[in-house]
Specification:
The structure is a single chain. It contains 44 helices and six strands. It is mainly alpha-helical and 817 residues long. Helix 31 packs antiparallel against helix 32 and helix 41 crosses helix 44. InterPro entries: DYW_dom, E_motif, PPR_At4g14850-like_plant, PPR_rpt, TPR-like_helical_dom_sf. This is DYW domain-containing protein. Keywords: Repeat.
Amino acid sequence: MMSSSSQFLHLTNNKPPSPPTPPSKPNLTSHTLSQRTHIPSHVYKHPSALLLELCTSMKELHQILPLIIKNGLYSEHLFQTKLLSLFCKYGSVNEAARVFEPIEDKLDVLYHTMLKGYAKNSSLHNAMSFFVRMKCDDVKPVVYNFTYLLKVCGDNADLRRGKEIHGQVITNGFSSNVFAMTGVVNLYAKCRQIEDAYKMFDRMPERDLVCWNTIIAGFAQNGLAKMALDLVLRMQEEGQKPDSITVVTVLPAAANIGSWRIGKLIHGYAIRAGFELLVNISTALVDMYSKCGSVGTARLIFDRMKQRTVVSWNSMIHGYVQSGDPEEAMAIFQKMLDEGVELTNVTVMEALHACADLGDLEGGKFVHKLVDELKLGYDVSVKNSLISMYSKCKRVDLAAKVFEGLQGKTIVSWNAMILGYAQNGRVNEALNHFCEMQSQNIKPDSFTLVSVIPALAELSVTRQAKWMHGLVIRNCLDKNVFVMTALVDMYAKCGAIRTARKLFDMMEERHVTTWNAMIDGYGTHGLGKDAVELFNDMQKGTIKPNDITFLCVISACSHSGLVEEGLRFFSSMKEDYGLEPAMDHYGAMVDLLGRAGQLNKAWDFIQDMPVEPGITVFGAMLGACKIHKNVELGEKAAKKLFELNPDEGGYHVLLSNIYATASMWDKMAKVRTMMEKTGLQKTPGCSLVELKNEVHSFYSGSTIHPQSKRIYAFLETLGEDIKAAGYVPDTNSIHDVEDDVKKQLLNSHSEKLAIAFGLLNTSPGTTIHIRKNLRVCGDCHNATKYISLVTGREIIVRDMHRFHHFKNGTCSCGDYW
């Protein structure tokens, strides 16, 4: 085979020959029919014969049939043959059989017609059974018997029966017949035995254009795009000129390898050969340019098309969805509706994908209504798209409703529902569905695990992480790069950063997401230097960092106070890699400078941003002002946040605490009053701790846990112990109550309740793992250090930003968080 596919311009530049003049329509008189078939002429003189010749539908055939029976022509071979042919042509093989079976003296041509009917309109089993009957009735097979059977075997991917027919091809002396062997090539290609298909092709002494197109399509459809393109070169070298079918076949091959250059060369050939205006060629070009990232070119071709099929519309919508422009995808969808184009399952699935990307719930509901009206909801793939759309639009309850009503759930359905729960923070439901799926003997695949592992990671339960790791190994998915990346991320989020690094080092293949997960893991554990070192190792390899990589490493620098390194990475992002910073990158830079106390530089950085600063940026600034007690800049940041997100109570609480720390009681009261009037509330603190495979939740001030009395009593005693060791409660953030009440309020913070529960219910020396939904407050951070000192326990707390490893009275963050 040819080694290079980039020379597609070997395609000849000659203009195509003028199409032959079509033959004039024959005059179907009884005389000419009689001459053609040697049947007595009186048979043809009856109008029924001419009616059969002119019949164009099953309805017309059913109207003609009574005339044939009434006039005693039903037993004539001519009419029997024609009736068989027409019944098979219009898909009613059962009616054809009712004509065939009573015939006493069956001609071979009747058998051939019936076999064709079974192959095209019935099951593979029925077609094979009739072929066996032909052999038993001593009917000599003809070559097209085998081409029909090979096609139906290929369409059903039945390799075993296909090989049996291949054997019959050889036995009956057709192994050199180009039509039969083209059918053999097609069989092996469709059964994904492309090497065998190529062997058959290569041994053929004669090959026509159909045969070349068949093997090219085989390689393209089996994911071997480069080999398909190489074969186009070879066919030209052997004197075969590509036709429109060849072009339609290889355009997807160019799209699959993302080669815009090769696709453009094929487009050039299509223009020179006069194929460009063919609707299937134009549609394939739209699809190719879209998949190669040239959606603008695809749109130009689409707009010039004088005739469009539904596939053309679907390709254009898909192109916009894949290029990250769901708004334009929906505009095309609306235009499609306006022009009255009949929608297909693919159309609504692409529209639902666009709505999901937009987070457009109302648009998604509109498409759902169309699905019901057009009765497209019977397709499980459409239902799966609905589940994904509702999940991404944060209506997982509606997604669950679709899922529960779905008959014949597939692995994709389960994966969509599990991912939907996980993406919406419904961790327990995601895990419950995963367990239910297994109880129904549905084996998880890589997509299932990549969906459920992040959900498990949110719980930060090491024991369950190990169980999941074992499940991955038992399902032989421990070589899948994306599953292993999810495991690395899971272990890091469960506090087992060393285990995460061991898995990372063991991986034979790493994706950019693998590096990102490990760098981010180091960052959240406060191991900024390790994150920087790993990033430097990544730069030495073949995998280039992407925008997420830079976000991870800059955030890692922020958590560890590595300001100079963070600034250097931010500059390198654009200068060395051509990556444009997004809002999250700017937010990370403000956080980097703000945490380090460089508040003026952080504010100047915001003022110099080339884009309008968003919530992420001003949120980081306000948080830094809280840490470093800067009222002036805190007010400026808060003002912007109130404008951008007036419904978030957390920002008001931060500003209130800044005022309280500065003893600005009037301003603090004003913020609190405004919150009360508008009904704004801060997200309540919640901490989770796992015990014996059960997750226990604690909310600040809550007394609903069965062990509440015991927990609060234990905290009283523990409080005295840590005070004796030097702990002093920080009550600066609590106001308008007595000092004793302040201390009681501090004592009821969710993480303290969770820690107390863990200490009471585990044996000495056991590490306590806590997961909190908010940032750990200063008092709890200080108290936990002393708790680790007086109890001799290691306590690992994961808050919304990072990990804190408390041991022997110190924290891994070095009080920098």
